Amino acid sequence: MKALRTTAVMAVRGLVMAVLGICASLALFIVSVVAIALSAAGVGLVLVPLVTLAVRAYANLRRRLAHEWFGTEIKEPYAPAPAFQGNLIGLLKRYRWIMTDSATWRDLLWLFCDATAGFALGVLAFSIPYYGPYGWVLAAGVWRPIVHAGGTEWFTFVPIRDQQTATLAGLLGCVYLALGVWLTPKIMGWHSQMTATALRPTRERELELRVARLTETRSDALDTQAAELRRIERDLHDGAQARLVAMGMSLGTIEHLLERDPEKAKILLAEARESSTKALTELRDLVRGIHPPVLAERGLGDAVRALALASPLTTEVSVEIPGRLEAAVESAAFFAVSEIFTNAAKHSGAQRVWLDLRHEDGMLRIVITDDGSGSADPSRGSGLRGIERRLGTFDGVLAVNSPAGGPTIVTMELPCVLTAPQR
Amino acid sequence: MRVVLAEDLFLLRDGLVRLLEAYDFEIAAAVDNGPELTRALLSLKPDVAVVDVRLPPTFTDEGLQAALHARSEIPGLPVLVLSQHVEQLYARELLADGSGGVGYLLKDRVFDADQFIDGVRRVAAGGTAMDPQVISQLLVHKARDEPLGDLTPREREVLALMAEGRSNIAIAERLVVTERAIAKHTSNIFLKLDLPPSDDDNRRVLAVLAYLGSS
Predict the structure, then answer these.
(1) Any residues with CB less than 8 A from the CB of A156 and at least 6 apart, and which?
(2) Per-residue 3-state assignment (H helix, E strand, C coil) for B142-193
(3) What is the β-pairing status of strands B102-106 and B128-130?
(4) Closest CB to B87 among A276, A294, A422
(5) What total of structural domains would you count in chain A?
(6) CA pseudo-torsion sign A46, A47, A50, A56
């Protein structure tokens, strides 16, 4: 039953592919060729970018469909666009950007293949399994009006003249259906294989895009690190360092006063001790901000548990991390969770928070759900943007699902290796 | 009174030894790493142990683990844990067996020698000495619907001081009321937390445990 349903769905998707191929792909192919041909006349300068953008939007739609319908993931291969310039030079730059991008030509080639081979495969995928039920329909009696009207329906190699031949067509229909169940998923597999081959970035382009991404995240990482160091420097300078200076001065004065005015010296001593306590408190807070002690001692799971205990919200934490993570990832994940926690308590009006941390398939996955008012938007809040950037350094991603009225679900994924538990 | 001391920094260990000796404690052993601490605790069975959380070789929570392990072997072995930072999580783990004789203090508390020694003695006698910082961390959970919800603000205040390990007399002094008033508050607290009648020290530990939210 499941195989039949899969086949039916695949066949319909094949039909959609065939229709898209013969209509959209073919039309876009012809328009593209014409636009490029018109380049010589100058009109193409304007036309080519417009048409190419349309082609790319269409190709991206097909990439998405390939992923959603056939499970083939295809990344975008296009070179980044030049900065916008509203004059002739800008126009020329855009034209050059498109014409020198190998992905443009690969798209064009794909449009042609999709309109021909893609169309044929789509039609095959649809018609083989659905031809079967057609045979049954004939066998069930539809042959009669056809024959009475004087026509002869050929079911493949069977000319239908009476019930006997019609029944034969019905049996043959079963063969077609079986063939379709076997073949249709395969055909659509070939179809998406072809799409993937044509539409995926070349190895070279993939590396180029990767380099661009790494350059971006590296500079983000350096910026964040520099900002962190500045903050630590300032905190030390204004905090512990200043207190130690004050203590040293007090001790100097005490030395001086010890014999002349022991009472005053005693007061100053008490002050010096107070100062040392305050310096320690400040250093402790600073250390928490750099690398929380529980994180160093127990790892991410317990650090998050400690965080939950200290939070004013009611929290439920479940952790499935058998071992320790890389220190840098651990720290990034901890501060991300900590920030989202603070956000939930401060902005969303949430009462309860659920936290789920697990390590599966080389991936650390953190899901944080709160029952607050929702409407958290990573593009607006600098906090979420900051987390996204910091996770980006580790090739991690952040997804926020926060409809108005809540709940807010924040999901983070970080690729990382698990080291053996220390104990 | 025999003490086992574990602290990896020489200066601090030396300072603690001198401090404890000045208050007539006998130092049975002063060690600087986890495995030696475990051995010393199990073989010497001291009257009280003063232990730093972070110790070699792993520099994680070696000291805490050694203390917990020793307490599982020798139930009620009095342990005072010292740390540069205090965590409610660790406090709960220490108190979890409900047998008392547990202290958990910031290292700075050593500055006030009298109070620190007082804490050590309380722990040795089977009481508790929780750092005020652990307690203040708890105060953020104001409106939680746990057994503590039934307590009046005054009773909470008394319970917080109880958790630090203070006696009724000390609490009375602190809140400027009579000892009898405090005794009334404590029996109300025990009643509301549904603690079985037993000796006062044990009930106090159980009340603190409930306060830390792990019961």
Answers:
(1) A172
(2) CCCCCHHHHCCHHHHHHHHHHHHCCCHHHHHHHHCCCHHHHHHHHHHHHHHC
(3) parallel
(4) A294
(5) 3
(6) negative
Q: How far is A324 from chain B (nearest CA, A)?
A: 12
State the span(s) of chain B assigned CATH 1.10.10.10. Answer: 139-211
Helix or strand or coil: residue A72? coil
Cα distance between residue A387 and residue A411, in whole Å: 12
The tens-digit pLDDT sequence of chain A (423 residues) is: 788 888 888 888 888 989 988 889 999 999 999 888 888 777 878 888 888 889 999 999 999 988 888 888 888 888 877 777 777 888 888 888 888 888 888 999 999 999 999 999 999 888 888 888 888 888 887 788 888 887 777 777 778 778 888 888 888 888 888 888 888 888 888 888 888 888 888 888 889 888 988 998 899 889 888 988 998 998 888 888 888 888 888 888 898 898 888 899 988 888 888 888 888 888 988 888 888 999 988 999 999 998 888 787 888 999 999 888 888 899 999 999 998 888 888 887 888 899 999 998 889 999 999 888 877 777 766 688 888 888 988 989 998 888 888 788 999 999 988 886 644
Is residue B42 within 8 Å of B4, Cβ to Cβ? no
Domain boundary at A174, A199, A224, which? A199
Contacts 24+ apart (CB under 8 A), A89-98: A91/A45, A91/A46, A92/A45, A94/A49, A95/A39, A95/A44, A95/A45, A95/A48, A95/A49, A98/A48, A98/A49, A98/A52
Contact A310 B60 (CB under 8 A): no
Place of tokens 């130690």: A244
SS3 A373: coil
Classify residue B110 by its DSSP letter: G
Residue numbers of A between 259 and 298 with CB closer than 8 Å to B:
273, 276-277, 280-281, 284, 287-288, 293-294, 296-298
Q: What is the CATH number of the domain that holds A406?
A: 3.30.565.10
Shortest alpha-carbon distance between residue A298 and chain B (Å): 7
Q: Which amino acid is at A161?
A: R
**CB neighbour class for A111 (10 Å; exposed up to 12, middle 13-18, buried from 19):** buried
Q: Using alpha carbons only, what angle is made at residue A223 by residues A219 and A228, rounded to the nearest 5 degrees?
A: 150
Give the pTM: 0.72
Task: Compute the distance between CA of residue A398 and CA of residue A379 in angstroms, rounded to an integer.
Answer: 12
- SS3 category, A107: helix
List the CATH code of the domain at B139-211. Answer: 1.10.10.10
Beta-carbon contacts below 8 Å between A and B: 48
Tell me the residue range of the domain where A248 lies: 206-290
How far apart CA B161 and CA B87 sit, in angstroms, is 18
Cβ distance of B85 and A309 shorter than 8 Å? no
d(CA A107, CA A130) in angstroms, rounded, equals: 32
The two three-digit tokens of residue A395, written as one number = 């090739």
Which CATH number does the domain B2-131 belong to among 3.50.50.60, 3.40.50.2300, 3.30.1330.60, 3.30.70.1230? 3.40.50.2300
